[in-house]
From TrEMBL:
Pfam families linked to this entry: Aldo_ket_red (PF00248)
Species in which this protein is naturally found: Cyanobium usitatum str. Tous
Designated name of the protein: Oxidoreductase
Keyword Oxidoreductase: yes
Superkingdom of origin: Bacteria
Listed CDD domains: AKR_AtPLR-like (cd19093)
Keyword Oxidoreductase among UniProt keywords: yes
Amino acid sequence: MAHPVGQAGIGVGTWAWGNQFLWGYDPSQDPVLEATFQRAVACGLHTFDTADSYGTGRFNGRSEALLGRFAAALPAAQRDQLLVATKLAPFPWRLGRRGYDRAFAASKRRLAGRIDLVQLHWSTARYAPWQEDPLLEGLADLVQQGEVAALGVSNMGPRRLRAVHRRLAERGVPPSSLQVQLSLLAPNPVQPGGVAEVCRELGIRLIAYSPLALGLLARSMADGPLPRGPRGALFRRLAPALVELQAEMARIAASRDASLAAVALNWCRAHGALPIPGLRRPEQVEQAAAALAWNLSEEERRRLDDLALGLDVGMPANPFQSD
């Protein structure tokens, strides 16, 4: 795999906040989610990532609304330390350079007026290439108008990222970040020729979503019943092939008195990516924050790289991921 540069921090993903289908969200969970948010801030996890499409059914937009409410309740000094990032979905009806104006305004309302990084949620290059460039131009307008500090992109491969960077850099608003699925079960971005190399070359921050593979990399075989629904079905399909990988992760975790989740997160960090695990409980925050106290050795990273590349299974690819 590509040789990493430096160690990144750890952020917080909020996909599960409002998602009933995959994560079983219920409004009764909101106090625990707020406690999770507060613990994350106290532990130094200051980057929070959300999206205007997070929250299923009647809870659409719930993730942004919860994050906005929790952030607004912080003392000003703590609030100023946050980096609030959201993603706008390129739905088919969002067209043209002004196609995101209403969506951005709605997200900003839900987020209590605070957006530091706005991101294109996925690339339309594979199915509606004509839609993407005008939407990105509109996001660049928002940066130049002072509405938001920076723009980022998501789910782009090396070729598309280079093209987007070239176009936006000509306007003086190059993308500051790229968010892709990256984990030991989705290692393609950090393979030779992968998008991680382009990010290092162009000075783009690489953000790793699903760094724990929906939680599979945070659990051992002895952790009891599998989750219900689609996550459980995925775990049952993948788990039998992960015995050797999980044994190596367990060995590393034991040597550091750390969790499996910390090993998975530090593998992303060792490749220069900022992992944003989905955190729903304060104890999950503790596990994630503990990973910041240590780093993988080069030898440990290489062993994990080899095991990840040798797997015959992996996470499902995002259907909107561009080349």
